[in-house]
Write a structure and sequence with these properties.
By secondary structure, the protein is mainly beta. The protein folds into two domains: 204 residues, Sandwich (Jelly Rolls); 67 residues, Immunoglobulin-like. The protein is 11% helix and 38% strand. The strands form four sheets. Strands 1, 3, 4, 6, 9 and 11 form a six-stranded antiparallel beta sheet that branches. Strands 2-5-10-7-8 form a five-stranded antiparallel beta sheet. Strands 15-14-17-18 form a four-stranded antiparallel beta sheet, with no helix packed on it. 35% of the residues are buried.
Length: 308
């Protein structure tokens, strides 16, 4: 190969690398601020990030996902916007049918565009969720050309059921493919060309449950102030802490004397930081959403606070 051909080959490779789709380094979808039902992923494409739902109907299944009956699409045909505004999150019920051997249903969003073109999401570091659900589900990474890449055996991280609102983080090392079927794929390759992210319910026929999704973000973003433990309160040595808001007074109970309390706004700014003495006066703060964190020996607590 002569020098001119080598130069042209290198230039072509460089152009291809520069043209690669790359998502924003971090993201946070927050139900309280979303009025249209869209996740801002960093893609310039107007079709990116819109929430969608799916079932196993394409595989002759009869699983269902049912939303509150009082929500209707708005004048622009947008359904998720009104749903999120009225229920402060994505609320629905799922039921696994018996029409397909491996029933499934769920919700998701495309990272780059509705044509399911892949984008590099590796900088996200993983995902965080704030949610509640009566049954478990998974976060599923769908690569571009998934039939060829994974044969539909996509990387997933397991999300435990939660009777009340729970904030959870999942690093990339929590994502696994199942064994015994599909195609084995390299995780880094999948992260470099992820087309969509799904919150997937895959259970036995007859299983049903309810869920509410309040936050979805890159790793650590749901805490608004840096990475959190993988599961809040999952460490058996953690001392339970409870925070109760009455007006603008926050009452802290549990072994709070050992901890430090920090209140952070949704832009990540620390607005109050003080020893957790049992009572916190929040009267100087403006109305809005905040995050409370209490940390200390044996203490790891994170909680959303809404000031009116």
């Amino acid at each position: 190969m002569d020098r001119r051909m080598i130069f042209m080959a290198l230039a072509c490779a460089a152009t291809t690398a520069l043209a690669a789709n790359t998502a924003s380094p971090t993201f946070l979808w927050l139900a309280s601020t979303d009025t249209i039902g869209r996740v801002e992923t960093g893609s310039p494409d107007s079709t990116s990030g819109w929430w969608f739902d799916y079932t196993d109907a394409a595989d002759s299944g009869n699983s269902t996902i049912t939303f509150p009956s009082d929500i209707k699409p708005n004048a622009y045909g947008n359904f998720y916007g009104p749903l999120i505004e009225n229920y402060n999150g994505i609320q629905a019920s799922v039921k696994m049918g018996d029409g397909y051997e491996f029933p499934y249903a769920g919700i998701g969003f495309n990272v780059w565009n509705e044509q399911k073109e892949g984008a590099d999401i590796s900088a996200w570091g993983g995902f965080c969720l704030e949610y509640q659900s009566t049954i478990g589900f998974s976060i599923e990474l769908v690569p571009e050309n998934e039939e060829d890449v994974t044969a539909f055996n996509n990387y997933k991280a397991t999300v435990a059921k939660a009777a009340s609102m729970n904030t959870t983080n999942f690093r990339w090392d929590k994502f696994r493919q199942e064994t015994g079927w599909g195609k084995e794929a390299n995780l880094d390759s999948v992260l470099a060309k992820t087309a969509s992210v799904k919150l997937a319910f895959n259970e036995r026929a007859g299983t049903e449950g309810d869920f509410l999704i309040y936050m979805v973000g890159s790793y650590g973003m749901c805490s608004c102030c840096g990475p959190m433990p993988d599961r809040i309160g999952s460490d058996p040595t953690t001392i339970p802490v409870k925070a109760t808001l009455s007006g603008r007074i926050l009452q802290l109970t549990g072994a709070v004397a050992l901890g430090k309390a920090t209140v952070v706004d949704l832009q990540g700014n620390v607005v109050i930081s003080a020893p957790a003495t049992g009572i916190m006066d929040l009267s100087t703060l403006k109305a809005g959403m905040y995050m409370l964190r209490i940390e200390g020996p044996g203490i790891s607590h994170s909680q959303k606070i809404l000031l009116k």
